Amino acid sequence: MKPLGSLLFFLFIGVQLNAQTKQWTLQECVAYALENNISVKQSQLDTEEADIEKLTAIGNFLPTINLGGSVSQSTGLSFNPITNNAQTTTFLSGTGNITVGYTLFDGLRNVRQAQRAEISQLASQYRLDKMKDDIALLVANTYLQVLLNKANLKALQSQNEVTQAQIDRTTQLVDAGVLPRGDLLEIQATNALDNQNIAVSENAVQISLISLAQLLLIKDYENFDIAEDDYEIISEEILDNSVSKIINNAKETRSEVKIAESNVSLAEKDIQIAKGAYLPTLSAFFGYDTRYSDASSFIQNLDQDNPFTIEEIGVVQETGQTVVGQVPNTISQEVGADPLFDQIYQNDGIGYGLRLSIPVLNGFQTKASVKRSKINLERSKFQLEQAELDLESNVYQAYVDAKGALKTYEAAKAALDSQELAYQYATDRYDVGLTNAFDFSQSKLRFDNATIELNRAKYDYIFKLKVLELYFGISATDLKF
């Protein structure tokens, strides 16, 4: 048992270490979200409902077949279902039937319903695609926010190491009487501010990680972390396209417009279906039924010992003379029920025919339904027009945002280069005692802020490029980071 216990112990430790060291890449986060996100699952259920609607529409072309039957026990005076005679007894009886119906013509409503189901199925797929794009973009944005916070934290920690080194050097110079004690206090104050900013940055990292974990429906917040890859701006080719070209691609590929177009097609089919109620309905039917009873019956047989008797059969009106005749002498005899299968064949019957229904007046229900469908069509057309306008506006906004983010990013790089030179110059001057600690701290603060601003501008620019690529028709799962 000891070797087995040791094996299980080390397996458990290995699983725990693996859980703690798991670092999620952006691609893994997107894939996991698309598989587990609640909103995506709800959209998938909508597609399943559309599949059911299509199945129902196809089923309307099939005949209806129904089987029926009943079994009963009667006691007392009852009518025998076979002989239709009243008799006092106890008997078991049963009936069975099958009916078949088929709609030959219903104003083409079944055809229109099938066509509508096809469009509805396509629309649900468009909605699912849009939901996946939205979730993937949301995950990417949240992921990049974590990277931004981590990059800022690293920058602050790196600069604080420089501050710590300055504290050690300044302490030595103060002890040697080269610098005043106020310079040491200034550097220590800078260190305190660094530690405060680091604590705030660490909190921002943790909060953003929790937000990403919640988006992925991962509850183990403590062990959740992402791979700290240095995401660079891979491609800026999307900005080489004109905004009109991006808009045209968006109208051809984006799900928002396709959903609105599908709604217009659905409204048109609804009008055709509603108008079909004006036309007559022709259907065919066929029915088969049979019955069985275990009740005995009585039959009349000739008396073999005395087959005939002489009975008065009438009177001659003129003479009053009685007329007699020979009639069969019968006796009643009880017989049992025929076997089950014999009765099924003996007592069966069929019925078939056509049924025609011509609508004449139904309280204007059909007319009202057609009018409502026409209003819904107009509303869907307006929604399509609005969707196209919104998409065009969103693309313009995304294009301008990406261009603006590029300028901000380039300006932030230039500002950081300048602040880095200024900080290095201030460091050199401080090291030789040509500047005081306050001026050095201010230069360091400006350099830290420039580093953080460059990080923010970088990831903001990356995200805005991806938004523009998404509008250009690149799938969210194919976006490259």
UniProtKB/TrEMBL annotation:
What name does UniProt use for this protein? Transporter
Coarse class of the protein's main subcellular location:
membrane
- Entry's family note: Belongs to the outer membrane factor (OMF) (TC 1.B.17) family.
Pfam families on file:
OEP (PF02321)
Q: Where in the cell is it found?
A: Cell outer membrane
Q: Does the keyword Ribonucleoprotein apply?
A: no
Alphabetical list of InterPro entries matching this protein: OMP_efflux, TolC-like
Sorted UniProt keywords: Cell outer membrane, Membrane, Transmembrane, Transmembrane beta strand, Transport
Which domain of life does the protein's organism represent?
Bacteria
Q: Which GO terms describe its molecular function?
A: efflux transmembrane transporter activity; porin activity
Instruction: Please tell me one Gene Ontology term that the record gives under cellular component.
Output: efflux pump complex
